């Protein structure tokens, strides 16, 4: 069966997902698209060779009888309403992060899905599909370094645009770590502290960069993460888990070690798209296959909700300069399996 897909939001990642779904992956075809910029969507549909129907509203794509499933890649504030409309229409939806821009909004999605009685929502936390993170999780689950005690991590971007301001270090960037650590450790968070240290002169006026986030989990694991989005030197994701008998680290992306010009070393990527390109492919192929089976196999609406609650606690901890508790309700039975 070919899954017929509607795309809502055809900006940077929407276009990339549309191309990979239509041309690269198996079992899917993009049949309809929408963007609030209809002219841009029309141009994309033609230029990309996808030649999907361009509809003039998100609801029209959701309602189209030949659309089996949706990809929501519009900007964050539109996600909640669009995902709720997909649930109402009974159609599976892959929603890019964040699931919603507030915890309350994400909760409304969880409640609507539970009410509908069927899991329909997957959230675009692609790191769970990254070969390196998967190998690290396997190592931890096998008990190779004993129980996890500490995690030292870093999320470094070379630069961010002027529109990236304020708490986007948390809502746009650290949100990936929020999801991936609880998946890696099979755990949830209980408290958070955010520390703003000396600011780099390379960050623009609206941004305090870098920051450090300290999370504590239910099992007492302490996680420190540096978020440094104007680091200049590369796109650099680090994760080192200190266990009782050893340290397990996220593998570096493959790069040919060079000895040349009186130096030895390996390259560092500069772009997140390249760093996670294979993860996006694996993620969306898995989504296609699970959707055809009538399942959600990846990060679900509950994971999206937990990420939103945690991100809000981080923002409040940053504002108040306090160590704050993270109050998470128990996972409903409906979401019993962890993706
Ligand atoms: N998983 C990841 O690694 C990853 C990477 C990049 C972006 N994202 C997420 O994907 C989303 C899109 O990011 P982007 O970088 O492509 O942004 P973008 O600004 O390039 O694209 C967003 C597009 O959505 C359109 N849009 C906005 N509101 C809309 C609405 N109500 N209906 C239809 N279209 C609408 C805009 O016109 C634009 O074309 C964001 O939520 C972002 O956080 C995730
Ligand atoms: O939207 C992007 C993307 O999610 C990247 O993975 C992250 O490193 C960036 O900080 C963020 O701005």
TrEMBL record:
Which reaction is catalysed here? Answer: myo-inositol + NAD(+) = scyllo-inosose + NADH + H(+)
The Gfo/Idh/MocA-like oxidoreductase N-terminal domain covers which part of the protein? 3-125
Per UniProt, the enzyme's principal EC class comes to oxidoreductase
| Keywords attached to this entry | NAD, Oxidoreductase
InterPro entries (alphabetical): Gfo-Idh-MocA_inositol_DH, Gfo/Idh/MocA-like_OxRdtase_C, Gfo/Idh/MocA-like_OxRdtase_N, MI/DCI_dehydrogenase, NAD(P)-bd_dom_sf
EC number(s) recorded for this UniProt protein: 1.1.1.18
Q: Name one Pfam family in it.
A: GFO_IDH_MocA
Please list the residue ranges annotated as the Gfo/Idh/MocA-like oxidoreductase C-terminal domain: 137-326
One Gene Ontology MF term: inositol 2-dehydrogenase (NAD+) activity
Tell me the subunit arrangement.
Homotetramer.
Q: What PANTHER family does the record tag this protein with? A: INOSITOL 2-DEHYDROGENASE (PTHR43593:SF1), PTHR43593
| Similarity field | Belongs to the Gfo/Idh/MocA family.
Q: What does this protein do?
A: Involved in the oxidation of myo-inositol (MI) to 2-keto-myo-inositol (2KMI or 2-inosose).
Record-given protein name? Inositol 2-dehydrogenase
Q: Which organism is it from?
A: Sphaerotilus uruguayifluvii
């Amino acid at each position: 069966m070919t899954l017929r897909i509607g795309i809502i939001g055809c900006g940077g990642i929407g276009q990339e997902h549309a191309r990979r779904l239509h041309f690269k992956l198996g079992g899917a075809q993009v049949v309809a698209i929408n963007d609030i910029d209809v002219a841009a969507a029309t141009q994309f549909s033609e230029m990309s060779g996808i030649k999907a129907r361009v509809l003039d509203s998100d609801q029209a794509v959701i309602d189209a009888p030949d659309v089996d499933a949706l990809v929501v890649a519009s900007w964050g504030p539109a996600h909640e309403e669009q995902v709720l409309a997909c649930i109402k229409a009974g159609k599976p939806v892959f929603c890019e992060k964040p699931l919603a821009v507030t915890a309350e909004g994400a909760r409304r999605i969880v409640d609507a899905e539970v009410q509908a009685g069927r899991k329909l929502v997957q959230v675009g936390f692609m790191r769970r599909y990254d070969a390196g993170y998967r190998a690290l999780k396997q190592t931890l689950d096998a008990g190779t370094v004993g129980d996890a005690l500490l995690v030292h991590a870093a999320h470094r971007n070379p630069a961010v645009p002027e529109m990236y301001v304020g708490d986007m270090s948390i809502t746009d960037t650290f949100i990936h770590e929020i999801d991936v650590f609880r998946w890696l450790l099979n755990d949830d968070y209980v408290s958070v502290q955010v520390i703003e240290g000396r600011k780099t002169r390379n960050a623009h006026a609206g941004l305090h960069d870098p920051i450090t986030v300290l999370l504590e989990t239910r099992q007492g694991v302490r996680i420190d993460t540096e978020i440094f989005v104007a680091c200049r030197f590369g796109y650099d994701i680090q994760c080192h888990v200190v266990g009782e008998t050893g340290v397990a680290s996220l593998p570096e992306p493959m790069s040919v070690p060079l000895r040349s010009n009186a130096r030895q070393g390996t390259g560092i990527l500069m772009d997140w798209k390249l760093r996670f390109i294979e993860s996006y492919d694996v993620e969306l192929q898995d989504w296609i296959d699970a959707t055809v089976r009538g399942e959600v196999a990846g990060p679900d609406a509950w994971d999206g909700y937990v990420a939103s609650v945690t991100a809000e606690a981080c923002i409040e901890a940053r504002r108040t300069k306090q160590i704050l508790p993270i109050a998470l309700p128990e996972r409903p039975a409906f979401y019993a399996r962890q993706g």
